[in-house]
Amino acid sequence: MRKAPSYDSSTRQRRRLSEEMCNLIDGYLKKNAEKVILGRRKQQLKNVDIHAALLDAGYKISYSTVNSYIRTKRLAVREAYIRQHGIAGASAEFDWGEVCLSIGGSDQRFQLAVFTCTYSNHRWAHLFDRQDMSSFLQAHSLYFSYTGRVAGELIYDNMRVAVSKFAVKNTDKEATDDLLKLSAYYGFSLRFCNA
Length: 195
What we know:
alpha/beta; Nucleotidyltransferase, domain 5; 2 domains; five-stranded mixed beta sheet
């Protein structure tokens, strides 16, 4: 019969994580929060980047210690992801994103057209000035030219350039005329995400 361990680890002190390292990590997390406010969410440092920065600064600390400390500091609700298993070439997802880049000392916002293959998770992106129909169509043309093929099905979010209107109680969506023409020309089927 097994017994619970008799030692008490609740009073154990951190051996490697010093207050100086905690202050550095807190500084990186603060910079990440500032990037989110400026619309630069994609430019945040990941935990592995923060760990690498500490190692570069000469500190000896494990990744799991850094990860554990950051986990206790984060108050935001974590997102949940469902792993998909796709068939090669069967489908790809399209969505818009927004990035803020500092060019010549001034911050500029750009629209990012992103395609993701559901099988390989390969991503391709291109910057545009606007999320209009011409940018939407050009993004598809550039992506298909880049890959040299067209996925059998493209999955879209509920964006105004893809959905012309919602039908019965927001469950059915009608594609825009331009998207229907695009799918007929390239020969792919459409699917829309839930609202």
